[in-house]
Every structure is written in C-alpha cells, then in structure tokens.
Amino acid sequence: MAKILVATDKPFAAIAVKGIREVVESAGDELVLLEKYGEKAKLLDAVKDVDAIIIRSDIIDAEVLDAAKQLKIVVRAGAGYDNVDLATATAHNVCVMNTPGQNSNAVAELAFGMMVMAVRNFYNGTSGTELKGKKLGIHAYGNVGRNVARIAKGFGMEIYAFDAFCPASAIEADGVKPVASQEELYATCDVVSLHIPATAETKNSIDYELVGKMPKGGLLVNTARKEVINEAGLIKLMEERADLKYVTDIMPAANEEFAAKFAGRYFSTPKKMGAQTAEANINAGIAAAKQIEGFLKEGCEKFRVNK
Ligand code: 3PG
Fold first, then answer.
1. Which superfamily, per CATH, for 3-102+276-298?
2. Gap from CA of 71 to ligand 1 centroid (Å)
3. Which of 104, 172, 189, 239 is positioned for an S-S bond with 144, CB 3.0–4.6 A?
4. Residue limits of the D-isomer specific 2-hydroxyacid dehydrogenase catalytic domain (predicted)?
C-alpha cells in the first residue's frame, strides 16, 4: 500500500480532497493530508515516509527531497512547476509531473475579473472604459492564454498573441492575430495579459522598456508569476506614466511600495486566487491523484517534466 501525501499550504476545496481520497483509496492506497502547514518543519516531517506527494505552489526543494526517503513521485496539481527543484528530484530518481490545462479556465476567468475591475477604475464610482473594441495582448499562448482568447471573443476584444514556442498558424487558427515579438505585442495592445512561466529566460523580463511600449492608458494584468516582473523597472515606469495600471494575482515583493505610490491604478490579490475555484481544485487534484496511481501501478510517465 502506497502512502500519498497532499501537502497544500493553500488547501484545495474540501470537495476536491474528497475526490482525491476516492481515487487513492479505491486504488488500495492511503491518503494523508497536510494543509495550512505554515512552517517548513511540518512539511519535512510529513514527507518522511510517503511514496508520492500532491502539491500546489508548495516548495519542494533539496531539503524536502532529502527528507523524503521513500519518495517516487511529486505531482504539482497545476501548471507551473518552478516551485520544484527538478535537478535534485532527478538526482533522487523522483518523477515530477504537472497537470497542464486542469486549472486554466479558472485563471483565465480571474484575469477578466481583474481587467473589468481595472478599466472600471476599481469601482470607485467614476466613468471607466469598456473592454469591447480594445486590443488585448496575450503574452504566451498556452492553456491559460487560449482560454483568455476564448473569453475575450465574448467581450468583443481585438485579440493579439505572442508566443515564442507556438506556431503563428496555431494562433491564427483560433481567430487571434499573432505578432512577431513581445515588443510588438506591448506596443500594439491596450491590455496585456501575462501567461508566461517563470524560467531563467523570463524572470525579470517584463521591464521598464517593454511595458513602456504600451499605448496611453495601458493595463498590465498578471496572473502568471511575480518573478517575471522587473518590479523596480515597473515602479519607475508607473512613476513616470500616470496613465498605466497594473493588476496582479501574485503579490509583488514591493507590494507596499506599489500600493502607496499607485493608489487607484494598482491592485494585488492578498493570496494567489487564479486557481482557487472548486472546479479547478477538483480537476487538478483528481488529475494529480490519477497520474500518481498510473505511475505507481503502471509506470505511466505522461506529464513528466523532469525527463
Ligand atoms: C499554476 O501554476 O497552476 C497556478 O499558478 C496555480 O497555482 P496554485 O495552485 O498555487 O493556486
């Protein structure tokens, strides 16, 4: 009997945990739950004897992997796996997977929630603008970007996308206009929605020069990662350009400075909310549980990210 730990500092909805438990127990395995653990020491203790771990944005670093002597697989219930030390996992012969696409509609919907809030002046009673007819730039056309495009059509937006890894023909096939560079995307669009992962190449890449290309009244929406933003550069730019707005689902390190300096054109959720829906939790959590059982019972490595 394998022992499977759900280690979520930001817990799944209870209904998702129930679904995960059903998958695990009907496969004859044991589920252990560690939620809202706060201190890393609790995580280190919980991983000691488990075969598999389901996580969200929880940090799985070398210390955790060293402590998890029985560990065979970690599944990040979600898309981004920048919170897992892949090299150390590979060195420990631990398989790492994500669950791509399972929470992407939830993130896309939140991007629009924040967009509407920003263009309506954060509901302060003054006249704002509409999204209809505005140019939307989707920065990275993956699962979330595609959902953003689908929803943007309903709003009547003119949709552009840039993705260094997605062929222009695939973007065009969705009725979205591909652009040749990220610079062109920012220079073209009234609203840019970020959907890039945090990698060595993308960290700090959304900077003074790039966002500075946006037209007057530009709005940057971040439901991706805080690490991709060059915060000092964005602060400098927003100081120089009182027309720009920034809304984010990932609280910047410099949140207090953003909030103090840019009242009325800056907003951050207190805790990352993009994937916080029952549906996304159910989809990603149950997919993670099934992927673990498929790996443990049949050796299935689909969705492995540390190949
Ligand atoms: C993801 O990468 O899937 C999203 O950022 C959601 O992250 P979360 O599970 O920590 O909410």
1. NAD(P)-binding Rossmann-like Domain (3.40.50.720)
2. 22
3. 104
4. 30-306
